[in-house]
Amino acid sequence: MKKNWIVSLLTVFIVSIMLSACSNGEDKNTITFWTPLTGDDGAYMDQIVKSYNETNPEFKVKHVVTADMYTKISTVLNSGKGIPDLAIIHADRVPGYVKQGALEPIETAISGQPEIKEENYLPQAWSTGNIGGTQYTVPLDIHANTMYYNKDLLKKYSVESFLDDNVVTIDEMLSLQGKLDEGQYVVNDALLGWVILAQVQDLGGDIQENGKPAVDTPVMKQAFENVKKIADAGLMTPFGEDGYLMFQSGNVLFSTDGTWTSTAHAAVEGLNFGVTNIYSPTPDKFTNRASSHLFAMLGNEKRTNEKEAGIGAFLEYVRENSMEWAKAGQIVASKQVIENPEFQNYMQSFFTANQQEIDSLYIYTYEYYPYVAEAVDTYCADIVRGNVDLDETLKTMQKFVEDKIAESSKTTTN
Amino acid sequence: MSKKISISKYIAYLFLFVVCFIWVIPVLFGISTSFRSQTEVVSTGFRLLPVDWTLENYLTVLGNTSTAPILRWMVNSIYIAVFHTFLVIVVISMTGYGYSRMKFKGRDTLFFTLLGISFFPGVVNIIPSYKIIDLFGWVNTSWAMIIPGLAGMGNIFLVRQFLKGIPNELDESARVDGAGDFRIYYSIILPLIKPVLIVCALFSFVGSWNDFLWPVIVYTDVEKMPVTAGLLLLQDIYGNYRMIGQLVGSALLAIIPTLLLFVFAQKYFIQSINLNSGIKG
Amino acid sequence: MKKRSFAPVFFVGPHLILFLIFILIPTVYGIYASFTHWNLMNNPEWIGLSNYKTILFDETSTFYNQFFNGLKNTLIFVVISVPLLIVIPLLVAVALEHKQIKLKGTIQAIIYIPGLISISAAALIWLLIFNKQLGITGNVFHSQVAWAANQPYAWIIIFVISVWGGVGGNMIIYRASIAGVSKDLYESAEMDGAGSVKRFFSITLPSIRFPLIYTFVMTTAASFNVFGQPLMMTDGGPRQTTHVLMMYIRQLAFGHGESIAGMASAMAVLLGLVILVVSALQYYVMSRNSN
């Protein structure tokens, strides 16, 4: 009896070895397409891919969603096998990947597609893929830091006027000091690091100077101090509490999260919300720190010219037919889509309503932006909450970025 | 004396009650969260039970059969975990026997060297590990999940420690009677270490079930993934949990098989060994 | 004689081959990487001891500060969590041995279940429980503290989730071990009038000393690798006081910017050495005392 059990287990075992050995051929007429689009985003992209495949193209697309895509990309690039034909990467990865020789120019793929050109996309989404005059990526979207507001609370405190000029200033927020009920707050601290990086732009600064990182600067200091004023006035959701959930609970006037969370907010019944720009220190300027999902080809010698042309055809299809992607809450990069009246049904069309809004979507393209962002994310909460000394911490952050750059630039490319 | 026993009984009961109470509350809270709508999850105030019970989280999770086929993932996980566990038991019982009962030169040195090496945290090791798996042609197959874990030292260490607590008399007398190593291993040692093997089986099963860093790297096909790696696909890339009830609900669905296995296995690992004199201290 | 020399190969050999391929080679590669500059994609470039010098001696370096802050926080976690992860399951196992206790299976299952729940879901549940507006601490106990952002509360919630999820494994090892202790020993001790405390120290503990050594060594080694709980519960805050070493290592290797995998490997090797020394000491001291 016991023996039989073991024998049958072994049989299944051997059979499955044989099965797994058989099913291993990748179809050479398939475009393997990796994305980091987990959650509902993956389902929307699946839908786009599915409808493309229904047009019976010469090269069908196989969409693979990966939870830890960048580690996986490092792994396959290192081993040289299993490299996908096409991938979606984030804007801040582009300069590093190009420097490391990980990307192939997208130009060969789109050479047969006259409509895939700068004029047909949001300009900053297109240009973020242009390094040294070579185009490496084609954009899918821009996803930005945005500020949701609770309509009922704005009404309750009679401050709907904040929204009049489309920019809520820090002074306007501070004017609510002492006027809120207990347990209610003006703004939360979601994506605080992104908010700080927007303030830097509003103040006319940058995170680099001649290619060197500029973190310990008067502008950065000013940016932190401005945001800290809101926290010091007791208007920001308390440190360590989930400001995102507090907004959904209806206790916070403004939430500084992302375009993509509109779908989650919409799932909360009775949450009457709208979207506007991230708060600014001045009524003259506003910035929404943004990133972009970009189609890119990782270095892979096995990819044929015909397949690259197939990739071009897919990208052209996406350019014309990515309204589906708007459902994910993202600002689609293709002008054909955002100029379609149907796009007005989506909340994020607020950011493409006029040139000023489009210009406010700011994508950092500095080569070492990821290190700067990491430094800001690591330290911003403690700075804004007054847990640490600002000057000293800015020095630490500057050193943090410089040390990382020093270590990374020692590595030579393949 | 009977009074003494009853006092210690009450102390034991009180202690177990307190521990169970603390341990079960989050689980119940998790279960009840999975039956709440997002609206209710974020509404202020604490309630252990939902006001409006909703099945929607589970319906959404189970209804998605294309991008997140959770039932399919669970079948994959069961397949992987069963084979992995079966092989683990074979390997660790033999190896544990070898390192504790056999006499060969440098046995303990070899054992502790291997154990020591296995203590080094494997962070960047995924790159060479992936290359090795690739060499065998196991990328995107369950072999990448079933085989490498067999090399682990933890369970072998446990079996060895357990065997050290069992006197040598039984196998020595069998050896004197002319029994070979395989006979001793199969008919004397295996029955003796059955409880610890069941514990190890449980650990291997759960370990293989809960691993998520490695499968994310080795799998590309959604329909081939094990469940814990698959569930990561439900989460948002920015770490923002959009739908709390769905996330908790899917995690609770995923533990049902391991929980059933535990309920089944716990009868066996607490069986006392009544083979002759059993284990003496 | 010849026959005997083949047998160890048969019993130990297969695992040895597996170990060589799946653990030794990757580990050696990881150690090699610690002497290099590497971004995971290129070929590692040999730089000798430079990474170690930076981490251990360059006091102005970010990596020096990360390593020592991370190591300090990891040690805090180990020193507090390991005793809890040994004592609580041991007490539970002993209490469950009591003859008159009912519902043993249910109690065992309740304590074991948390270890099965994925860390992300577990963290979500506990963060809701510790949430001031939505959870138990705020609404039932009227705690005004934001737990994740203030010490010592930030550590407390990390210990709570770690102990909650971590005691089940050791509990069943102890249960299986104690079940193997001969009942005769207890009965004769009872005849001699030994109380339950005495029986625990004079019979139970000595009988399970070898599995006990195992749980000590392995729980400690696992605790040094702690990563998920602080990442999910506090994200290292406040002021990086719960930022453990494994979080720094993973950020260096798999963070957003270009990978600094050589430095990460060097930190991992140093952590490995610490684990090695601590567990060897534990094993040595406990084995000597138990003989």
Automatic annotation (TrEMBL), chain A:
Residues 1-23 form the signal peptide. The keyword Nucleotide-binding does not apply. Keywords: Signal. InterPro entries: Bact_solute-bd_prot1, SBP. Pfam families: SBP_bac_8. This is Extracellular solute-binding protein.
From TrEMBL, chain B:
Gene3D superfamilies: MetI-like. The keyword Transmembrane applies. The chain crosses the membrane at residues 12-31, 78-99, 111-130, 142-163, 184-206, 243-265. Keywords: Cell membrane, Membrane, Transmembrane, Transmembrane helix, Transport. It comes from the Bacteria. Its main location: membrane. InterPro entries: MetI-like, MetI-like_sf. It is found in: Cell membrane. It is a multi-pass membrane protein. Residues 74-265 form the ABC transmembrane type-1 domain. Belongs to the binding-protein-dependent transport system permease family. PANTHER family: ABC TRANSPORTER PERMEASE PROTEIN MG189-RELATED, ABC TRANSPORTER PERMEASE PROTEIN MG189-RELATED-RELATED. This is Carbohydrate ABC transporter permease. It comes from Paenibacillus haidiansis.
Automatic annotation (TrEMBL), chain C:
Keywords: Cell membrane, Membrane, Transmembrane, Transmembrane helix, Transport. InterPro entries: ABC_transporter_permease (IPR051393), MetI-like (IPR000515), MetI-like_sf (IPR035906). The keyword Membrane applies. The keyword Transmembrane helix applies. The chain crosses the membrane at residues 7-32, 75-97, 109-129, 153-173, 208-227, 260-285. PROSITE patterns: ABC_TM1 (PS50928). It is a multi-pass membrane protein. Belongs to the binding-protein-dependent transport system permease family. This is Sugar ABC transporter permease. It comes from Paenibacillus haidiansis.
